[in-house]
Write a structure and sequence with these properties.
Elements: E1 2-6, E2 25-31, H1 41-45, E3 52-57, E4 64-70, E5 73-81, H2 82-89, H3 95-98, H4 102-115, E6 119-123, H5 125-138, H6 146-168, H7 172-197, H8 217-220, H9 228-250
Parallel strand pairs: 2-5
Antiparallel strand pairs: 1-2, 1-6, 3-4, 4-5
Helix pairs in contact: 2-5, 4-5, 6-7, 6-9, 7-9
């Protein structure tokens, strides 16, 4: 078994993205009984009755996550199979050798992304301490290659044209959804990658973006009511932002396709 506190609650008050009064409590739990957490019975047995409870796939996709809402606050608990984690921790080969396996590489990259934001081992230091330290210091965070950036922006162009078509047909709610779900999402990913290349603090999913003091926050912001004029203006802004960010990332290696109005 292992229990590790992660996230903003592990950061000093002087650090970027430290905990505030809205912050939840995030933990990783290495367990041999992940099925135990599929329901809230374990919290009730501990005398804690949640207002609401869900067990689902985590954001990074390689682990299961519990979210429990209590009157006192929110708990996020990532469950990790203890056998698999112990197997990795006991390997006698360097991490770079383990990373040759794509499945292991993905899991370690996900783990590193979490640990590099701050962690504190509450139980299992002897079993997992050295391994966690190595992952946090040696495994690079998930990054976008230039090829992946080009793939993202090529997809952006197609989705931009599709969004304009939705507006033309009067499908304003669908266009509004597409703006946020597709176009803005690409720009958030591009800005996150750019900030990392600039050696600036950055978190995925646009987390803490407003706190950075980055002037580009206004450019990636999307606000549009479901009417043609507002949606067209917002779509054009996302396209201009995409071009600007892509140029910063790739220089002249990518250009907006000729013949497609933006």
């Amino acid at each position: 078994m292992g229990l590790v506190m992660i996230g903003s609650q592990t950061r000093a008050s002087t650090q970027v993205a430290s905990a505030d009064r809205y912050s939840d409590w995030d933990f990783q739990l290495a367990t041999t009984q992940p099925e135990m957490f599929a329901t809230a019975k374990w919290t009730e047995a501990a005398g804690l009755k949640p207002l609401h409870y869900v067990f689902r796939s985590g954001r990074l996709g390689s682990a299961q996550k519990v979210t429990a809402l209590f009157a006192e606050g929110e708990l996020d608990l990532i469950t990790i199979p203890a056998v698999a984690l112990r197997g990795l921790a006991q390997q006698k080969v360097p991490l770079r050798a383990l990373m040759a396996d794509p499945n292991i590489a993905r899991a370690l990259t996900d783990l590193a992304a979490v640990l590099q934001g701050g962690y504190r081992i509450l139980k299992g230091e002897e079993d997992f301490g050295a391994f966690y330290k190595a992952v946090a210091s040696e495994v690079p965070p998930a990054r976008l290659s230039d090829a992946e950036v080009r793939q993202l922006v090529d997809g952006f162009v197609c989705d931009y044209v599709s969004t304009q078509g939705k507006i033309d047909r009067g499908e304003f709610l669908a266009a509004q959804r597409w703006l946020h779900h597709q176009l803005a999402e690409v720009n958030f990913k591009l800005l996150h990658e750019l900030r990392q290349r600039e050696k600036q603090v950055s978190f995925p999913d646009a987390r803490r973006l407003e706190a950075y003091g980055d002037a580009r926050v206004a450019a990636v912001t999307v606000a549009a009511t479901p009417d043609a004029e507002a949606l067209r203006a917002a779509a054009k802004q996302t396209a201009a932002t995409c071009r600007t960010l892509t140029e910063a990332l790739l220089g002249g290696a990518w250009r907006w396709p000729a013949g497609i109005a933006s």
